[in-house]
Specification:
single chain; about 280 residues; alpha/beta; 7-stranded mixed beta sheet; about 55% helix
């Protein structure tokens, strides 16, 4: 079921009002509740006024401190889980200019130190050569929103400068299919693979490739990116889901760590990418 922004805003407000109402009904001051929850009074105030979104763990601690009946607690915890998920459709981004999404990603990357990309279907934009970016950003079906492709491509290419910042670490875990899926012409595919091989030699970049022949105890289902340990973005055909709940973040970190040991990494990944590039060039010739 799609996430409706209006409904989500209502539910966040309901959660805030319910937590404030329960605290007042208990007779506790914000300061006393903060002490019981081992939180700051400022955080409690920000949660109750809607200036801060509580995580599911925050809500659990507050409800426990207030001795809320289990039935009421379960309902509010469900609200908290839904409140910690954001959804934006590509149509929404297209209406204001898809290049703005590149600026948003650039800001997110600039505020993060460790980024883990799980890419079962396609390399991410930070790894694209310009020609490959043009292909992936161009509309493909009639229902795709229109977009300023040249401007969006340039914004994506400009974002890639952050890969030169050695204070940040980038982990890109791809399936063999993601590398070899012919999303563009053979010459572009060859250039794309050669470019990724070069990037894999940067000291702060790690590329892993899950070969089709490897036995892996899980199924790669969708693209996701974990930014430090504070949020996860999950990419869908229709848009993007952002997860803030620590349990969801931990789940995706665990999945990344489960897949990574089965991947080709280091020199083996570089060799794989170079050989794949040569294979595309042979097909082209």
């Amino acid at each position: 079921m799609p996430i409706e922004p209006e409904k989500q805003a209502r539910e966040r407000k309901e959660l805030t009002e319910a937590l404030r109402g329960l605290r007042r009904a208990s007779g506790l001051s914000g300061e006393r509740l903060a002490m019981r929850c081992n939180m700051s009074q400022t955080k409690i105030s920000r949660i109750e006024t809607g200036r801060a979104l509580p995580t599911v763990i925050d809500v659990e601690r507050i409800l426990k401190a207030l001795a809320v009946p289990q039935e009421v607690a379960d309902e509010l915890l469900q609200l908290a889980r839904r409140a910690n998920v954001n959804y934006a459709s590509w149509r929404t981004y297209a209406r204001v200019g898809l290049y703005h999404k590149q600026s948003e990603l650039r800001a997110l990357e600039s505020s993060s130190r460790v980024m883990r990309h799980f890419l079962p279907a396609i390399p991410t934009g930070l790894l694209h050569v310009r020609e490959y970016a043009v292909e992936t950003l161009s509309p493909t079906v009639t229902s795709d929103p229109t977009r300023d492709v040249p401007r969006t491509v340039q914004a994506r290419v400009d974002r890639q400068a952050i890969l030169d910042d050695t204070s940040r670490s980038f982990w890109f875990l791809m399936t063999e299919q993601a590398v070899k899926w012919q999303r563009a012409g053979l010459g572009t595919m060859a250039a794309q693979c050669a470019h990724m091989a070069e990037l894999n030699e940067k000291p702060n970049v790690e590329i892993g490739i899950l070969p089709l022949g490897a036995r892996v105890p899980a199924t790669p289902m969708n693209i996701f990116v974990v930014y430090d340990d504070r949020l996860v973005t999950v990419e869908l055909f229709s848009g993007e889901v952002v997860l803030h709940d620590p349990q969801d973040i931990n789940q995706h970190l665990n999945l990344f760590n489960l897949f990574w040991p089965h991947a080709l990494t280091g020199a083996a990944a570089t060799t794989f990418l170079r050989e794949t590039s040569k294979s595309f060039m042979r097909q082209r010739n």
